[in-house]
Amino acid sequence: MKALDIIQGEHRGMWRVASAMDALAQTLERPEERTASIQAIGAMLDYIDGYIDQVHHPKEDQYLFSALKRHAHGVGAVIERLEHEHRDGPRFRDELRQAVQSVAAGRSNDMPALVQSVAEFTEQLRAHIRAEEMHVMPEARKVLTAQDWQAIDAAFLDNDDPLFGARARSEFEALKARIIAITPAPVGLGGTAPAEVSAPAASEATGEIVLKLRGITSHYGRIQALHGIDLDVRQGQLVALVGANGAGKTTLLRTISGVQPASGGSIELYGQDITRMAPDKRVRQGVCQVPEGRQVFGPMSIEDNMRLGAYTRRDSEIDQDMERMYSIFPVLKEKRMLPAGTLSGGQQQMLAMARALMGRPKLLLLDEPSMGLAPLLVEEIFRVVKRLKAEGITIFLVEQNAQAALSIADIGYVIETGHTILSGPGAELLHNEQVKAAYLGM
Ligand SMILES: Nc1ncnc2c1ncn2[C@@H]1O[C@H](COP(=O)(O)OP(=O)(O)OP(=O)(O)O)[C@@H](O)[C@H]1O
Ligand SMILES: [Mg+2]
Question: pTM score, two decimals?
Fold first, then answer.
C-alpha cells in the first residue's frame, strides 16, 4: 500500500499548488505584482501538465483504478468521474492558460475572467483530490489484494515528482520554494467542506513560527527512526502529533529537546538554529519537555519536584509561579509535602506538567500525557492542556490517543514509521477517513 502514501504525498503537493494559485490570483489586481504572479501561475500549470498529467494520472488510471474495477466495490461512479476529469484536465488547463496569456499580453479587461478561471480550476482540483481520498482510497485499502498492491506499488515507487518528490530537480526547486513561501502552513486534505479545509489553515498561518523542523532524521545505531520530518508550530498554537506505537513520536520529541541527536535536517526555535544546541541550553531558551511516563522523582516531595523545573531560573518569581501551579492543579497543593511516589498516575502527570511549566516554557512539549490513565483522568488532563493553550502557551503534544489530541489541536500531524503522512487542522483530520480507520477505530 506504499502507493497510497505516494499518492497522498502528491496530493499534498497539488493541494499546496492550488492554495498558492488562489493566493496569486488575489495579487493580480495589483499591477506591481501582476507579472510575477502570472509567471508563477504559468509555472504551476506547466508542472501539472508535465508531471501530474504525464505521470501521476496515468498511473492511477492504469494501476489503481483498473485494479479496483476488477473487484466488486461501491465506488464505480466516483472512479468514472475521476477518470473523466483526468481526460478533461488538459482541455480545462488550456482554457486557463489562454486566460493567463491574454492578461500577460496586457489585456487587463480579461482579468476578472482569469481570476474566475483560477478559482474554478483550484476548486475542481480540490474536489478531485477529496473524492479520491475520501472514497477511492479507503475502498482500495479494503478490497485490493496483496498481488494487486505489488503491481500498484511497483509502478508508484518508480515515481520522481520533480516538484515535491525526494529528488526534486533543481529547476523546480525555485518554484517549490515559491509555493511554500506563498502557503507556508501545512495544508490538510480530505475535509468534509471546503471552508473547513482552508479557513483554519489560513488564520493559523499568521502567528510567528516558534518551532520549525525541516527534514529531521534520527537514528538508533543503524536503525533509522525518523525519515525527514517537516513540521511548524506557530505562536500560541496547540499542535498535535498522533501515531501508533513505535511510529517515532517520542524520538521526535527527544530530538526537539536535544536528548536524542538529529542525524540530519534542521531545528529552528524562533528562527534560531538549535539543531546542535545542548539540551540544557534549549531549556534556557524555553523548550520544556514533559517526558513519556512522567518520570517524577518518587522519593522527593511534590514541591521539590516542582522546584526542579525552575532550576534554570534566577528570577525572584519562583514562589509566585508555584502558587499559580497550585491554582491550576489544586490536588498538588494538598499533597505538596508528600513524596511524589505517593501520587496516582494522573496526579503524577499533573506534577510532571507543573514541573515543566515552572521552567516558563515558550514551547511546552508533552509526550503522551494520557498514557495509562482512566478515561475520566484523560479528560481532566486534556482540560488542563486546553487551559494552558488558552493562557497563550505554545504546545506541541504527542499522543496515541488521536481522538482526544486532535479534538483540541489547532493543527495535527499523523506520523507513521518515521514519516509524517498527513497534516491539517485538527478538526479536519478527525473527519479524515484514513485517520478514522487507522486511529479512531471507526
Ligand atoms: N533506544 C532505542 N534503541 C533502538 N531503537 C529504538 C530506541 N527507542 C526507540 N527505538 C525505535 O525507534 C522507533 C520509534 O520509537 P519511538 O519510541 O519514538 O516511538 P513512539 O511513537 O514514541 O511509540 P510509543 O507510542 O510506543 O511511545 C521504534 O521502531 C523503536 O523500536
Ligand atoms: Mg513514545
Answer: 0.58
